[in-house]
Amino acid sequence: MRSVDRALGVLFTYLEEHYTPNEYLVNLYSDHGCALYDPFTTLKEIDFVGEYATGAAWMIRGAGVPEGIITDELTSSVDIYPTLGKLCGFPVADGLDGNLPAVFGGRERDAAYSVSQFPGQTFKLAVRTRDHVLRVEARGCTAQDGTADFADAEAQIYLRGHELNPAHIVDSAELRTFFYPRARDFVREISNNGELFVR
Questions:
Q1: Do 132 and 138 form a contact (C-beta atoms < 8 A)?
Q2: Three-state helix/strand/coil letters over the chain
Q3: Average pLDDT, stretch 30-52?
Q4: Residue 130 in contact with residue 186, Cβ under 8 Å?
Q5: In this predicted model, what pLDDT tens digit does every residue of 55-110 receive, in sequence order?
Q6: Cα separation of 26 and 12, whole Å?
Q7: What is the mean pLDDT of residues 5-30?
Q8: In the chain, N or C: fewer CB atoms in 10 Å?
């Protein structure tokens, strides 16, 4: 962190000495990390879609960016494109997955998605809100074409901060009504209904 701070200090000093505030935009997005180093895990296996493995820092400075704002708004890496479009003044097509965050005049996401989709491993999905998370895992392995059979998938809703802890499973018609359609839409093109094609 000290190295990143020092490098950013050099960059910002150069920008401030050579450009006016409305002439630059710096966008910094961190890697999401790795669940391998999750200090809080009680699992024997790595949780690739766990909260610890999927959080990322996103920092922006420059033209059009409100100063001194720190927000814990749900965002995704796909939100970078519409945000840069807004701040840099280029058009962004409708229908993209990205969302302009509320801090930049858009709307807050109601959910953020994390997925692990590797052939030979089970397909895993996490759909997170501020308070809850739906965790979905297919029983069988993901096929070579990236599809998976969701017929007998395990799906549970947990309180945030207590993922995969059976003592913190929550269930209600309201939560299912919120989460299930979002999960179905997300996996619509991934689901193969158990149909595997062999050449």
A1: no
A2: CHHHHHHHHHHHHHHHHHCCHHHCEEEEECCCCCHHHCCCCCCCCCCCCCHHHHCCCEEEEECCCCCCCCCCCCCCHHHHHHHHHHHHCCCCCCCCCCCCCHHHCCCCCCCEEEEECCECCEEEEEEECCCEEEEEEEEEEECCCCCECCCCCEEEEEECCCCCCHHHECCCHHHHHHHHHHHHHHHCCCECCCCCCCC
A3: 67
A4: no
A5: 778 889 888 998 889 998 999 889 999 999 999 999 999 888 899 999 999 999 99
A6: 9
A7: 90
A8: C
Which amino acid belongs to residue 18? Answer: H
Reference 54, options 138, 115, 132, 140; nearest CA is: 115
pTM over 0.85: no
Structure tokens at 151: 């017929």
- Please give the structure tokens belonging to residue 71: 């927000």
- pLDDT for 193 beyond 90: no
Nearest-angstrom CA–CA distance, 31 and 55:
8
Round to whole Å and give the CA distance between 118 and 44.
19
Cα-based angle 43, 183, 151 (whole degrees, multiple of 5): 80
* pLDDT tens for each residue of 95-131: 888 999 999 999 999 999 999 999 999 999 999 999 9
Token digits of residue 95: 């229908």
How long, in residues, is the chain?
A: 199
